[in-house]
């Protein structure tokens, strides 16, 4: 998860403390912290320094729920009450209503799109995740564990301004960015011309115009 931020450390610390993450880096370029997931998986939260990030229309929302107990399908229950909260930078996130427990956990990322079925299919094929619910369209890791990805109808079309919150995907060993580009295009996505020179990642948009990045595999030991 990438949060464009004018105050990376403060912003990163907010989420680190809220979700009990592990700090990775803290420097002038930004702040990174890691959320550990089941089966030795993890999700990194990155907070690069970005001046004046666009929060006028927020298309991506994290959904949290009280931890230490059954969640009851909080994230993908269309009748579930969701409370609106704000992080330290003013980004909205959603909290499942329910019994107060010690701590919160991330149960889903909700993404606004122009066609939930089309975009769920795009992301399912791109990531290898399963469609587990259709109202709303919901993807889950094949293990059934960890946060889900939920697609909801957008209130207004995506503009040319970059989303302040977006996903980064990391390739597995042996995979290449050129192969990823071909896959994204075949599924209806596009590569963005980033004009930043040669970087170890590429920037794309899904069929609704939501930005995401694909990063090269981690170096082998």
From TrEMBL:
Residues in VOC domain copies: 103-217
Pfam family of the protein (one): Glyoxalase_6
Family matches, as InterPro entries: Glyas_Bleomycin-R_OHBP_Dase, Glyoxalase_6, VOC_core
Protein name stated in the entry: Glyoxalase-like domain protein
């Amino acid at each position: 998860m990438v949060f464009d931020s004018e105050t990376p450390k403060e912003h990163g610390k907010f989420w680190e403390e809220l979700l009990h993450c592990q700090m990775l880096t803290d420097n002038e370029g930004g702040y990174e912290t890691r959320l550990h997931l089941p089966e030795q998986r993890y999700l990194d939260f990155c907070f690069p320094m970005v001046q004046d990030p666009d929060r006028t229309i927020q298309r991506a929302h994290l959904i949290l729920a009280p931890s230490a107990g059954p969640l009851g399908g909080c994230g993908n229950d269309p009748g579930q009450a969701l409370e609106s909260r704000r992080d330290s930078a003013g980004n909205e996130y959603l909290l499942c209503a329910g019994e107060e427990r010690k701590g919160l956990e991330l149960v889903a990322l909700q993404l606004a799109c122009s066609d939930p079925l089309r975009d769920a299919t795009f992301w399912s094929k791109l990531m290898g995740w399963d469609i587990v619910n259709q109202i709303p369209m919901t993807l889950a890791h094949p293990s059934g564990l960890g946060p889900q990805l939920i697609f909801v109808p957008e209130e207004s079309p995506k503009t040319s301004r970059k989303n302040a919150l977006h996903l980064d995907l990391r390739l597995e060993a042996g995979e290449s960015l050129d192969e990823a580009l071909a896959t994204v295009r075949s599924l209806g996505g596009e590569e963005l011309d980033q004009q930043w020179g040669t970087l170890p990642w590429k920037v794309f948009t899904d069929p609704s115009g939501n930005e995401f990045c694909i990063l090269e595999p981690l170096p082998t030991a």
